[in-house]
## 1
Amino acid sequence: MASAGGADRSPPPRRLVFAFYLTGHGFGHATRAIEVVRHLVAAGHEVHVATAVPEFVFTAEVRSSRLRIRRVILDCGAVQADPLTVDPLATLEKYREAAVVPRESILREETEWLSSIKADLVISDVVPVVCKVAAHMGIRSVCIGNFSWDFIYSEYIMEAGYHHRSVVWQIAEDYAHCDILLRLPGYGPMPAFRNVIDVPLIVRGLRKSRSEVRKELGLEENAKVLLFNFGGQPAGWKLKQEWLPDGWICLVCGASDSQDVPPNFIKLAKDAYTPDVIAASDCMLGKIGYGAASEVLAYKLPLVFVRRDYFNEEPFLRNLLEHYQNSIEMIRSDFLAGHWKPYLLRALTLQPCYNGPTNGGEVVAQILQDTAVGKECISDKFCGARRLQDAIVSGYQLQRAPGRDVHIPDWYSLSETEIGAGPTSQNVATKETTALCFEDFEILHGDLQGLTDTMDFLKSLSELNGNNLESPEKQHTERTAASVLFDWEKEIYIARAPGRLDVMGGIADYSGSLVLQMPLREACHVAVQRNHPNKQKLWKHTQARQLENAGLAPVLQIVSFGSELSNRAPTFDMDLSDFMNGEKPISYEKAREFFCQNPSQKWAAYVAGTILVLMTELGVQFTDSMSILVSSAVPEGKGVSSSASVEVATMSAIAAAYGLNINPRDLALLCQKVENHVVGAPCGVMDQMASACGEANKLLAMVCQPAEVKELVSIPTHMRFWGLDSGIRHSVGGGDYGSVRVGTYMGRKMIKSAASDLVSESLTSEAPVQSDCYKGNGTGLLKSEAALEYLCNLPPHRFEASYAKDIPEVISGDAFLEKYGDHSDTVTVIDPKRSYSVKAPTRHPIYENFRVETFKTLLAAGNTDEQLSGLGELMYQCHNSYSACGLGSDGTDRLVDLVQEMQHRATSEGGSPSLFGAKITGGGSGGTVCVIGKNCARSSEEILEIQQRYKAATGYLPILFDGSSPGAAKFGYLKIRRRRS
């Protein structure tokens, strides 16, 4: 791989003709092309630019008869659903229309055009097909860029359009015909190119000084100036004065003539020269693209950026900016809500330090000139290694789940070329033989998978390592205890399990329904270490207890981060012998009594209970001491399965530490036993299954009979799910949830009893039974209903036609017990003195199973408002059914009403809604509401508006759950050890 430093700068023997093909995707490509064109024209050459970019973009910058512009569309870039989101499927389909269907005519027409202008060299940034045309004609071709479309489109195909996979193959094949790639800093993997030359940043030069620009704009020299350079703002979105720190002025690029701005915002003229404005500003707010990244680096302007969906070049440019301390990220919700101030003030503390060359336009022009006259500019020495490395990284990136933060492997770091140290000379093998390390730890097994919360967890461990804490009085007790929890010289096992958003199914899970669950971005991490009892680090009180008992026995020590937020003790410890009754484990009932002794430590049942369940159900013997650290970002009491995430993460980490091979389904069922029998909460299994078996951006479709994963349903890219917390604490251990479950099982018993009576009647009666239930159905159907195990297996029409009229609205516990004996539920008990609602809890799972089946089918329908309306209506129906069961709440009803208001407001204004439905989730009686809407900026704005309106009405700002991440099985486990110096 050659560097640009040694190019021969001798002038060419004649005037050359360059054909410069430029993608129409964004003006960033055009701005760098202009710099190259400027140098080629200045050297006396003729440049023909073929592009979809408007002509004035070039002619305003380069005024010469030697520059010709030809309008043509040969690719489509990326189709954006809104300024922050790409539509992957629409992109692939548009590329097919623009470049695949007319390919033969493109090849023919471009051959004729290149012949007509007598081109000496074809330049592409980075239009694929022209490399093929040039090779066919025997003309050399050069590509310029920091990414290529084969890499960008590959994830789109995996996510939305696998039937378009031949598109990527064709693009890569076209690029392979290119003679040289001139690779710009901030590059991503581009393995299709055979020969690569790294070139400096291509940056437009300044025309005016900082003082001149400020004077023209009427700005004081010491004024704090923000440049808002967003390249398309969300529709209907208004800038507000209070979004800026006091005394700041914001310069707005690309504002429409009709856009009103507050007095502390100034609309720039459409022909404002951006580099001058950048150099005159104090920081910039915008999106990361090559144009913005190169110019803020060159002029040392801090960039506050908002991340975009499916812009796959972004992580590599972000890596470049972070390397030079040039950027900070603003969370999208804060951007849309106008919470800008902390980010802008933080940006002023950055110290951008890029001092590398910015003469890429000149360097590139010289290489193009030399290549056109036949000079060899490249060396093959490192090309094979780099192509292999790029191919590995391409594969790595394509394995990441959508919705997960993109992480670039450490060994694919900035090249020496990018940091000004000359050409890249590292080979891949050296990088691969270096073990992946993070902070102070060596990762012996597993993969961070780009999950930033896992990186943060490892950082928190690193801060504990070696008791490297600030003075104890300034620390939470939990961190002081955690600092002496582990032996840092030994292996530690880490598992991760997310919370879940109940999209459809909810309380119908314990009745056998199909459920659809989405694993959340928020997750619980658990670290486990096992030690011989005589080598275990013990807290002082634990050590005293051991000495009092005259011997060192295996102990369990647990630290839970976040205890100060939930009024619970931060630590728990016990002798593992307390779980034994002679040679056998104690009963679950005894364990429940054990954990209830101290209310502040009852939380430990979710963690330690996994040990007892493994002992009881699998016969595992724990002879070692065990240290467990729990750190959960899944908020408690919000109906998003905080308890399941703790149970699944804990059991996964213990299984890894002890070499237990438990498949994900069985692990989830075991964790359900922890909650049902040790904790005493009568939940179904869907929470544990979603946490264990889920995958990012997919709905786990599971039939709870008892726990059969049907499939993982990809969430269509045009839709999105959010969770909004009502602020009303939810608990599956509460009375409402338990009483509804009792009523459901009562209803099942009544249906089975009625069906049994009819079977008996049909067998003893000589005349055929003419009851509504039996007529035309036969004894076989009645027998199956008499043996009904799961209420959801009863179709709605059978329930309404045959049983509904005989199910009472309410029945007392003693009346039911007297007539039916028992309700046959192992995790709830009927209180004879209490009355139970029966009809609504019985009807709910029967209809909910039907709704979920319909919902799942609709997900595969076409991308239309009718599809989203249908899905939303099913969610509204589910919400109303919860309320009929007595599991609603004022807070969740208010949130659902707000979603309906947003939907109806858009319709009444003659537009298309962005939000389409909402429902209460999980066990109900508070907790979180699930919302469905379009995957666009407008829907995000409306979600933020709902948050603010809810706060105005209740004083509580709902927590927003937005995003997805892999379940515990997909994550696997990490095995780490402190690095040996």
## 2
Amino acid sequence: MEKKMIIEGQINGDHSNRLIFAYYVTGHGFGHATRVTEVVRHLILAGHDVHVVTGAPDFVFTTEIQSPRLILRKVLLDCGAVQADALTVDRLASLEKYSETAVAPRDSILKTEVEWLHSIKADLVVSDVVPVACRAAADAGIRSVCVTNFSWDFIYAEYVMAAGYHHRSIVWQIAEDYSHCEFLIRLPGYCPMPAFRDVIDVPLVVRRLHKPRKEVRKELGIAEDVKLVILNFGGQPAGWKLKEESLPSGWLCLVCGASENQVLPPNFIKLAKEVYTPDLIAASDCMLGKIGYGTVSEALAYKLPFVFVRRDYFNEEPFLRNMLEYFQGGVEMIRRDLLTGQWRPYLERAVTLKPCYEGGCNGGEVAARILQDTAIGKNYASDKLSGARRLRDAIVLGYQLQRVPGRDISIPEWYANAESEFGLRTGTQNAETNQSSVFENSYIQDFEILHGDLLGLSDTMSFLKSLAELNTLYDSGKNTEKRQMRERMAAANLFNWEEDIIVARAPGRLDVVGGIADYSGSLVLQMPIREACHVAVQMIHPSKQRLWKHAQARRQGSSPVLQIVSYGSELSNRGPTFDMDISDFMDGGEPMAYEKAKAYFAQDPSQKWAAYVAGTILVLMKELGVRFENSISMLVSSAVPEGKGVSSSASVEVASMSAIAAAHGLDISPRELALLCQKVENHVVGAPCGVMDQMTSACGEANKLLAMVCQPAEVLGLVDIPSHIRFWGIDSGLRHSVGGADYGSVRIGAFMGREIIKSTAADELCKFLSVANGTNTDEVEEDSLEPLEAEKSLDYLCNLSPHRYESLYAKILPESMPGDTFLEKYADHKDPVTIIDRKRNYGVKAAAKHPIYENFRVKAFKALLTSAASDDQLTALGELMYQCHYSYSACGLGSDGTDKLVQLVQETEQGKSSKSGDGTLYGAKITGGGSGGTISVVGRNCLRSSQQILRIQQRYKAATGYLPVVFEGSSPGAGKFGHLRIRRRLSHKQE
């Protein structure tokens, strides 16, 4: 357990020893510099010298501190997160910038800093939160302490997922640097920071006020009865056009960070660059901005309601947002409404709030006392092993934003204590799926089922229970729980309970074998898993639809509106709601082009998830000519974990389209529905996936493998899983994304390889015919021409047999090829869903070889499933899975986590128990798009196998700190489930 202490006290200015502090400040925004200023101010008041190493402007410090004991040294050693604009972090650019700033010159940085620290005779190094400062202090033989609410290993760990293998070492290096620190002074609203051994919690660090509210307003010439909002986006307004009509009548807006030549409307007031914002915050009635430690802490301290807009790809935000909303001080604004000037409903809501933070605001003073005591020799650290020894996989630990629903956001998943009878957690993280059938049946009575069958599915019963609870929430109007999830409140106002609701269900899938060969036409074998997505849809006349306030304010006339609530938004830092006018999908009287739709959803990454749901509507409009005259309300609740390689996106798409089709009276076959959903992912979302995920989710059946040849989607039928065989999925903890660079580049490499093979076959055919020219054509064997004729027009790589590949093409395929070289020679790779980057080098040989051999392996796997039950059968099945796994790695789609899990299965198989005849696990492989996610495991269907799976869980946790989720069991696809049509029972309306 980490050591936590809340320390109170005051700095005394009469300390006899003058201490020298070296205080390093990250280059990410002004927020770090402003809180450092408060700590530094108290250290200087106590008579100490502070050297601040920073890239921030001098005025940030000198506005508050005028003392010769403050020495500013302008050096940037940590660039933080690179922002494309005020709300968008460029993840790849952040990693590249950090590499340029802190990695490439690392040796010279360490040498320079060690010499400098010795030159000033520093007593203590303090870092907020520059990693290399901790290592430099260690090299200089000086103690160091970090003061922060987040660490860069945690932030950058998510960015690494977008960058694939590139820059992964950055996270490890940062975590190791932090581990040299003595302890962490942790600020409220903190993120998980596993690199630190010991932790001391302090109150909020907040800048003091210089002037009272009335004085500030008087100087600005603003009367007390005028409502005042301060616009605070960290000095990065991004060129937004501010509109007079954005503010309610009688309101004024103070604008921080406006450019000198920016012309503002008459109800907007431009603030000077060097303005002291705490005084203005306290003089305002609410703040509009992005969440950061500085804005949140000062809003809470001065009890100012905060209207916030989400920032993309910054893991710090959900933890601060949770704190802000816990103390009833936050209102979330949709980015689209910020940019279009629809501010009124949010501002009017904000001024009705009564923020209730009563905690301490003297964190600067408390932190300074701890730093002073540490500098004179006091020991706050424990004697545990160094942080570096605890860091087996910083990426796994750092990335886990996922939490069990309902659990406090500040408790990381990997410190949870959910235990099974074997002492380990199994199954999904959905806490609602294991209720007794008697209890479940009790809440089905809340609704009358007009059509459909529950099929005994407990998760569907739980979903109906959640709907019933929304009824009660809406009827009672209760909102007394401080931690009541915003998405539940939004959902309570989503449906008209007097009208019918359609419910559809679609499961995720376990890629048993086939994987990334689907887009090359392979046979695949996929199993629908127990975890599924439920979608409730209501189509209703616009006049009867319950609209959220901001949607109502934006609405023109009585046009139909789409409103979506997605449960689980806290699990992945995305917006919980989405709404749009359905007419927005029209462009010149026709449904908009897919490219426009892709850009429409991508403009706000916190709501990009809506493309998976709302995109189904556009695809129905474009592909089937459907027109929607009624409004649509949708509730999405998925138990399929995101980013784990079990097709969470496909289950959302299939469930959404199934529900919308049923509500609109469309009769779409499961196969056709899967193909339409693939269009959603390829063209609206922009992920270059094959069709096996959607097909399994739509056409699969419980406890059977769906056999499909992806050319493009020929379902061969269902393959029974023999009763003595069982499949499991084990999550590695590393996030997987088919939209990531690795998956897309491997797909491009495979299509490049196909074009090279086709071109080579055409050349060989020409040579063959030219040699035969002038001879008796009867002597030319027609059979020898047919293979080359077929390969010249090869439509799918999987139609090339391994022996033909080895005999003709293996030697001519390059290991890799630059994009521009390929395009110059072959013009196009002929893949409709990916684009070649001319500047990028693509792996070709491994990417092309994989589907050719994978198709053969899957055919053999399918045949083995029907052979006689024996150890030889299971051993052969396992060997095919191992071969597939290493073929993934050859393509560049492996990962440390999945490799470790496969290794653990191999060790289990080859251990003493296996040699004695008790072994029950036979093989494993990475699944789906690779680069993380889940592995699939084949074994004997017995209790011993389950025990071994649980032991693998335990060993993986010991190695990485992460307890993986196990997927076991199966459930029917969307086609088998159909849909439910439900209506709230009359008795409830009368109560």
## 3
Amino acid sequence: MPSGNLLSRRKRSWRANELVSRITLQLLDFDDGSPPEHAWRRKLSSHANRLKEFNVTFREAIRMMKLGLRLWSYIREEASHGRKAPIDPFTRESNRPSASQGVPLGGMGSGSISRGFRGEFKHWQITPGYCEMSPVMANQFSIFVSRGGNKKYASVLAPGQLDGLKKSRDDGISSWDWKLKGDRSTYHALFPRAWTVYDGEPDPELKVSCRQISPFIPHNYQESSLPVSVFVYTLVNTGKERAKVSLLMTWANSIGGLSHHTGGHVNEPFIGENGVSGVLLHHKTANNNPPVTFAIAACENQNVNVTVLPVFGLSGESSVTARGMWGTMVQDGSFDQDNFNAGASMPSSLGDTVCAAVSASTWVEPHGRCTVVFALAWSSPKVKFKKGSEYCRRYTKFYGTSPRSAVNLVQDALMKYKHWEEAIDKWQTPILSDERLPEWYKITLFNELYFLVAGGTVWIDSESLVVDADNKLNSILLEDSDSPLRDSTFNSTAPLIGFDPHEIDDKENVGKFLYMEGIEYFMWCTYDVHFYASFALLELFPKIELSIQRDFARAVLREDNTRVRFLADGTWGIRKVIGAVAHDLGAHDPWHELNAYNIHDTSRWKDLNPKFVLQIYRDFSATGDMSFGKDVWPAVCTAMEYMEQFDHDGDGMVENDGFPDQTYDAWTVQGVSAYCGCLWLAALQAAAALARSLGHDDYAERCMLRFAKAKSVFEARLWNGSYFNYDSGTSYGSRSIQADQLAGQWYTASSGLPPLFDEDRIKCTLQKIFDYNVMRVKGGCMGAVNGMHPNGKVDETCMQSREIWTGVTYSLAATMLLHGMEHQAFTTAEGIYIAGWSEEGYGYWFQTPEAWTVDGHYRSLIYMRPLAIWAMQCALSPPKSILEAPRVNTMDRAHISPGTLQFLQDSVRKITPKNGCFGNNVFNWDC
């Protein structure tokens, strides 16, 4: 745990009372309508700057020309089959991304909708793998106020300068009153909640707060899967006249883009239980994707009256137009009560847009207060991937697969949201109240979790995976009754995970979980990146983390002989090699067709297998789950043995092969490398510790002997007196200072294992990285650049060496915390806050990219790796099981037997995979 003051802030976020008057905050406080002390804040009038994407240099473009041509050809081939390539740098959204994001809606894994800080609903990810960035401008909240006489106010509760409005071709929307300037309205975000305070807009005598709540609740594996959000409006009348206030929620029957034009969409009103009523919008998706049903609703009580308009259109051809709807609200503040009896509408025609509206009206007495609550749910029970597999989403386990489950979802949300908030407060308060932590850290820690909702997550019910496995097995047997099912490998048509339905274990009953590497890199659970991001899941949803690890453990023991072309060099190989840790769980048929990534042959990567072993041991030590350790043990043995083939000279240390064979897949490595070598050392120690915990002492002994041998080689080849060289090659870049060179030590310390090196060397290296990679880039206000030459110049070897990786910066800061360097740690991580989240930064809030350059140009928005900020929290508050673990050096416990001495003399047996597998040698380590 840290001591004293961690960091005297150089920058800080806005305090609530600097943007909202103190009196208004006090008035709104009666119903939690007042925003919290710690939150990320913006005025609604803030300009949403366009973001600047990185450009490769001319030299890099020439070097990557052949790769680019092969990638272009592959993208076109996938498109011809109606599929999206995992990486497509050539296609760009027509809507350029801007600095306008906010807290997304809903729980995890049921499709996501984001909401900008100025109120627009955007970034639709209902269909797995596809993100429609454009806002649907008909989706709005609006307010209508009338006081005695002719005092009337009406406005959409979003600024009228929205770019999406300017581009709208719907004259109905432009006829609405977009009177909000936004200079007296503010947005306050602390994921999973957000507050928008309208301090006298549009009515100077009315204070309004909208609180957005989603059921993201750590360790709650039911409600955290729900596709629903609640919007609680707190109204305070500061005037001397009674005011009638009507709040309006409008929603288009659309999932973003032009889906509302495809026709066949149906709206119907409903009256539910406990005063909940609203409209269902049944959306017929295009391209044979599963349908979606939206529910918009409000809660009626003795003070609030709810009415609906089931259908209105955006063109003059509609029976009720957007213009006409708005006119009714301005005049009456409500709709006809008979609309509830309208029944389902006729399916919409091709090219038409149908919308619905829910109005909630109330009277607010002079100096009185009132609460009005809306809810939104979207029910898309089926997940269908492009290569045919279809599953039921996790929430269907509790709500079923009927489209009308959306009614139950909004009803429960409106009844339970206060309990959700109590759980969220209980989780967040200890961190928010810790005065030793910088304010920016508290805010960013929670807000970076946006990715677990907006990162294209898919969470399915395990039972549907069993059904899918049965179907695939039956299909194979029908096609070929003589189909061979070999002992430990399957042919390329067989699913790699869950081939045998009995093998699909969901011991914790949490389903199966996927999250994308990023919205621009379409691969599920990319493992080299999960290495950084997984601390968030381990801390908040450990059962999901263990489930993902089991998926990769099964994949280690599987093979897929399908031939694929690796685009970097044009060579061919097999999709999945037994013993190699999968790069990802696939794209268009996850869990069955692995390794969507095909730039390099990842079976030759040197970091994936060590990262697997390290994550397994970290999760095992943090959870104390013995059954998990036993289940994954064979895969750990296999993954470790697989790595022996990369020890080319028998010295115990693996070597890189002169191409980018690790997560830095554009940065060439030759010989022994700081990054992969350190990971290998840590993996040897972790494997030994796991072996001892499971009673395999001989195996542990052999690992530690390898460790001792490899460590001496590593330090002799790379230590230069102040840090470890990038690699043992002879190029100018080989002496580069890599920010991530102690990744193995980071995991070692995080898992409660003894340090890999002398503490003096570790701290000396971290200080060198801080002085050069952090502080020599704009005074530490950007994060840590990946590569820095010892002369103080940024390493321009390649695109990635000159980039600042946001997630790596957080993991570096976590390593510093683990070694008592608190000032350096928080200064380092604060650079990501300043550049990405602060008012003076580049505008990457709620869309933190993988990387940015020293001039702030981004690469790959909405990326998985920045979840590594939770590694900092794990360093500050380690799991109890790690804190209480005995501090015993594994080397001290090794008894050197005569047989082991002979083993050491003979060195490590080399693996030579034959026919794409290990044959009979996989389990020769007495697993």
